[in-house]
Specification:
The protein is of the alpha+beta class and 224 residues long. It has four helices and eight strands. It starts with a strand and ends in a 30-residue tail after the last strand.
């Protein structure tokens, strides 16, 4: 196994898989502050001409985020909303209500436009649609993949899974937003950032493979 940095700065591992059945696994103990996602209603929207060059790629369309087909809809729905944090939150509120969540609705080919038209999906679809609307509104937005446990939420808890959310650039920094849950959460474990899910798949195979099963666990460990 070898490791490298991708163009987005993510740490990646590369492996030549043996023929036959094999298992990949990892486990880690994460030290989390216990603080929820930052909420900053005062965060302003940076005029597009003043955005840092490093953020401009997150204004462009990408594999799952068709800005060219959703720009008119974005401005019709959110063009009159206050700028900055309030506008991103308005996007999240709409996406949260518009998409019906269900694991049975997962599709690896569904794009932001598909999620908008179908009104169903999983966390990555919420993120893709919110990201696309933000980009259409000249707000840089990038896709985040990782783990999100149930810390701070009420049971019963669903089986563990990978999670997706996004970050929007406001003022002079990136802020976390989550259109799927649409409220501050505790204990996000960020694995990678990119333009959309195509850039940061948890695994990519070059050849014939069959995924038999996967298990995700994010259990809270109470300090002594």
């Amino acid at each position: 196994m070898t490791a490298y940095r991708d163009p987005f700065g993510n740490w990646c591992s590369r492996i030549v898989a043996p023929q036959g059945r094999f298992v990949l696994s990892t486990d880690a103990l994460i030290n989390d502050s216990g603080a929820a996602d930052v909420v900053a209603p005062w965060a302003t929207q940076t005029p597009v001409e003043n955005l840092p060059e490093s953020t401009l790629v997150y204004l462009l369309g990408s594999r799952y985020c068709e800005t060219d087909q959703l720009t008119e809809i974005a401005w019709q729905r959110f063009g009159s909303a206050p700028t900055g944090w309030a506008r991103v939150q308005a996007v999240c509120d709409f996406v949260h209500q518009h998409i019906k969540f269900g694991y049975q609705n997962a599709s690896r080919t569904r794009t932001a436009l598909g999620a908008y038209n179908e009104g169903q999906g999983v966390c990555r679809d919420y993120a893709h649609l919110a990201i696309t609307f933000c980009r259409c509104l000249n707000i840089p937005a990038r896709y985040c993949t990782g783990y999100l446990g149930d810390v701070g939420t009420q049971p019963p808890y669903a089986p563990g899974d990978f999670a997706a959310w996004f970050e929007a650039y406001l003022g002079e920094r990136w802020y976390t937003f989550d259109a799927r849950n649409n409220r501050p959460r505790i204990g996000r474990v960020l694995i990678a950032r990119g333009r959309d899910a195509c850039d940061v798949a948890l695994s990519t195979a070059f050849g014939a493979t069959t995924l038999e099963a996967f298990k995700v666990w994010t259990d809270e460990v109470v300090a002594d």
